[in-house]
Amino acid sequence: MKMKDMMSSRIEIGMIIRVLILEMFAFCMAKGGNITTIDWILKETSYTRLCSTKDILTVNGEFPGPALELSKGETIYVNVHNQGTYNVTIHWHGVKQPRNPWSDGPEYITQCPINPGANFTYEIILSEEEGTLWWHAHSDWTRATVHGPIIIKPRNGTTYPFANPAEEIPIVLSSWFKGDVMEIITDALATGGPPSIADAFTINGQPGDTQSCSSQSMTKFEVDQGKTYLLRVINAVLEEELFFAIANHTLTVVGIDASYIKPIKTSYIMITPGQTMDILLTTNQSPSHYYMAARAYAQFAFCNATTTAIISYSGNYTAPSSPPLPDLPSYTDTDAVTAFTNQFRALASNNYSIDVPQSVDKRIVMTIAINTLPCDLKNGTCAGFYGDRDAASMNNISFVNPSIDILQAYYKSIKGVFTTNFPRKPKHFNYTMDPMLGNRYTMASNGTKVTVLDYNTTVEIVFQGTNVLNGSDNHPIHLHGYSFYNVGSGFGNFDESSDPSGYNLVDPPLINTVGVPKNGWSAIRFKASNPGKICRETQLYHELINLDQTC
């Protein structure tokens, strides 16, 4: 090469390097310049409920925890200081975290837990979410008291797809246990039996006046007649789906899981653990007090308490000594659940478009079951079915937490942490016959198994409920890192040859948590476009989907 050409090449390379340095500097400035950082302190705090006092794990001493109020597309850092006595992680439920799985939160999946005395800074990256989500602890049962709202407003310069409400009101539905929740789950894991059920539900931390020692502290919401309010309802209960209603008032559901839907006018909702709903409430009744109430929808062991709060109209009037209660469906009213959930349709407007996969590259069928594992106690029998250890499973695999988080093992190629042989289909039998007993159906196996998907694969997962050990119930399923289209659901056993013909591929709801019907199935579709590890779970069941990283 001639000297002139060599000098020219060096100049060009030097210019390119300087341009790259400037671009990187500008990127770092943009990334760090206007991003808010907040500090959360995890600590034990004394609370009195149901006539007794105990210490509970909280964020900043609050139950429920503090709300994050953000705008669509915003990023925020949350520095979590663990001053409690247990290992903890925090999950940002429904936040997709594009290409940021390290801050998703499930322990031993995307990170090791935050040890007592340590801290961890989460980067929360919002993308297309708009509406209501929530955050919660993701370590054992610590989420019973460690949770709170995520409120995502429209971007600056844009509006809601409905008239601006007079006020926005977060409503967090939670469980309350008289005992120590970590002791309850530790004892259950030690004996192999089921954990104790909750003693009450709460609305914004209070059980309401149907419960002992609770009437004076009941939650009240002050409203003006003739206005419309946006209720941001979150089911943070550990196990039960809930019916929810307000006496003499119609609810208009406009969003689910931070995605808008075609408005549904209803006298009640059924909301699963992990789900969020945006609901418009128009206060068009005579000024008075009206009960807001929630109670379980369940078939299996459940808390049968009703939690209450008061909607209090402003003005001069004599409040009734016994305000009207809403007419909630009965605990086992599956018809009421189906009538409500069958109305879910994505808004699918020009400003809120959807992209439903019309075909799929891979279909996975997963059974959800209560199973048993052999009793491993040296003396005596376990407290589960047949003296064995109760277990939850998907495709007969009961997930085992590894000692190293799976995301780290994947990126660092650490062998022996997980295997990639999670079965794509379950063993074939009549999943919903009544009931299924005996080791042929009930015995599961342990494993840390994942499914590997290529980047941009279009995926369909069919979640099949089962009646193993007579444990069929409505099961909420949540997918980390994604919202998905709930394209179909039904009762009985999924028929791969005929049921897909009834799918809604036009305007299915875009959600992150779906309730699989009792003795039925639900089908979801999504595109695997968010590389990293994502966790699929209910309260009792979780497995992993592993997405290959491609650049």
What's the topology here?
Layout: H1 3-33, E1 36-49, E2 52-59, E3 68-71, E4 75-82, E5 90-93, E6 119-125, E7 131-137, E8 147-153, E9 167-176, H2 181-191, E10 200-203, E11 220-223, E12 228-235, E13 241-246, E14 251-256, E15 259-266, E16 269-271, E17 276-282, E18 289-297, E19 307-313, H3 334-341, E20 362-373, E21 389-394, E22 397-399, H4 406-411, H5 439-442, E23 445-447, E24 450-453, E25 458-465, E26 475-479, E27 484-491, E28 510-511, E29 513-516, E30 520-527, E31 532-537, E32 542-547
Parallel strand pairs: 1-4, 3-8, 9-12, 11-19, 20-25, 22-23, 24-32
Antiparallel strand pairs: 1-2, 4-6, 5-7, 7-8, 9-10, 12-17, 13-16, 13-18, 14-15, 14-17, 18-19, 20-21, 25-30, 26-29, 26-31, 27-28, 27-30, 31-32
Question: What are its keywords?
Answer:
six-stranded mixed sheet, mainly beta, single chain, disordered N terminus, disordered C terminus, 5 helices, 551 residues
- Mean pLDDT score, rounded? 89
Strand line-up of the largest beta sheet:
10-9-12-17-14-15
Radius of gyration: 25 Å
| Secondary structure tally: strands | 32
Shape: globular
Please identify the structural class as seen in this structure.
Answer: mainly beta
pLDDT < 50 stretches: 1-32, 539-551
Polypeptide structure, described:
- The protein has 551 residues and is mainly β.
- It is built from 5 helices and 32 strands.
- The chain has helices at residues 3-33, 181-191, 334-341, 406-411, 439-442; strands at 36-49, 52-59, 68-71, 75-82, 90-93, 119-125, 131-137, 147-153, 167-176, 200-203, 220-223, 228-235, 241-246, 251-256, 259-266, 269-271, 276-282, 289-297, 307-313, 362-373, 389-394, 397-399, 445-447, 450-453, 458-465, 475-479, 484-491, 510-511, 513-516, 520-527, 532-537, 542-547.
- It has a 6-stranded mixed β-sheet, with no helix packed on it.
- The longest helix is centred in the N-terminal third of the chain and has 31 residues, at 3-33.
- The radius of gyration is 25 Å and the shape is globular.
- Mean pLDDT is 89; it is low at 1-32 and 539-551.
